[in-house]
Design goal:
alpha/beta, 46% helix
Length: 198
Amino acid sequence: MGEVPLRLAVIGDELVAGAGDPRGLGWVGRVAARTSTAEPLTVLTLAVPGENSTELGVRWDPEVSRRLSPAADNRLVVGIGRADVTAGLSLARSRLNLANVLDVAEQRRIPAFVVGPPPGAPEDGDKIAELSAALGDVAARRRVPYVDMYTPLAAHDQWLADMATSPGHLPGQAGYGLMAWLVLHTRWHDWLGLPHDA
């Protein structure tokens, strides 16, 4: 990577904005704080609360494009939340939406990293699990790193305790800390070409 500064555009819903976190960091802020780079790291969070993958697919390119720099190592982090389930999107539609984002990013030589949906309302568990698996498959077919948030958190005591006290099925400090840990331990530093965090 050398001396080229890293610039990360993070696109997604309220989860990438850290909604519900009393510290205002969310998982994105926690991951950025644990990502050591020679040049200052620029993280640009582009969040729309309640956004599903169809809506994200429409807006991401123009919003990200105006934030890229020819002098930077530009990268895209895609956070797909749980809105596809509540919006009733089919798995096929969700898969296609993510595939389109990743294919355009690849054409434009913007390396991508995908963060899947974490557990939410208990009654949506099966559907979120299916969505996460489908998105993971899309990413794997394109050799794009994918963070499965659902599987490790669905029965995690700390996650469940955090969610039980949180309005709107949003994580609090503990939940976002767990999400950040999963990102940092799923090829994050490898993807950025950085040494692993001690």
